[in-house]
Amino acid sequence: MIRILISVFLFSLLFTKSLFSNNIAVVDIEEIINLNEYYIKINKQIDEDQKKNSDFLLNNEKKLDYLRKEIEDSKIILDENEINKMIIHYNTELDTLSNQIDTFNAHYQVQIIEIRKIILKEIIVLAEKYAKNNDIDLILDSTSYLIASNAINITNILKKELEKINLNLEFEKFEND
């Protein structure tokens, strides 16, 4: 009986240490991406391109406004059939503009997602390297936990490592038809 107790005690002593010796780190991926100088720079370029390319949308919106006013002004003069034709034309133009706006917004949204993916891949490589070099068993994103000590937060370390990498971020400009 004593032998069994000693064996259980030694077994639990040897394996308990390895069960509870996991090293954990925490990283705020959103902060790293959003504060990255290359990401900020490419976002500014995207904003400038959006402003430049939104002129055609504004012109189309002004045309629609003109058509709407024309319909309002023509209600007294034209018969119902002619007014309905104008309304159908207006609705067609409105649908076209809505589609252009949706395409415009989706284009830039896809571009930003792709850029964030590129940066995320680099962060993962850096996190894997850090984990290997520092015997870290688990790295959690800041959105995956409730409370953690700042001592296990490696956000600033990864941010500094990412700054050393020359990220060549590009985006496709919007081509309006």
Give me some keywords for this one.
177 residues, mainly alpha, Protein Binding, DinI Protein, Chain A, two-stranded parallel ribbon, 6 helices
List the helices and strands and how they pair.
Blueprint (H helix, E strand, L loop, with lengths): L1 H18 L4 E4 L1 H6 L2 H17 L1 H20 L5 H54 L4 E4 L13 H9 L14
Parallel strand pairs: 1-2
Helix pairs in contact: 3-5, 4-5, 5-6
Number of helices: 6
**Rg result:** 30 Å
**Spans of 5+ residues with little confidence (pLDDT < 50)?**
16-21
CATH class: Alpha Beta
Beginning-to-end CA distance, first to last residue: 86 Å
Q: Going by CATH, what is the homologous superfamily?
A: Skp domain
Provide the β-strand percentage band. under 5%
User: Averaged pLDDT, please?
Assistant: 84
Q: Total strand count, please?
A: 2
Tell me the domain tally.
1
Largest sheet: 2 strands, parallel
Helix content, binned percent: over 70%
Order of helices and strands: HEHHHHEH
Side by side, the strands of the main sheet go 1-2
Shape: elongated
Structural class: mainly alpha
CATH fold descriptor:
Protein Binding, DinI Protein, Chain A
Structure description:
The protein is mainly α. The chain has one domain (23-163): Skp domain (Protein Binding, DinI Protein, Chain A). 70% of the residues lie in helices and 5% in strands. It has helices at 2-19, 29-34, 37-53, 55-74, 80-133, 155-163, and strands at residues 24-27, 138-141. The protein has a two-stranded parallel ribbon with strand order 1-2. Helix 5 packs across helix 6. The termini are far apart.
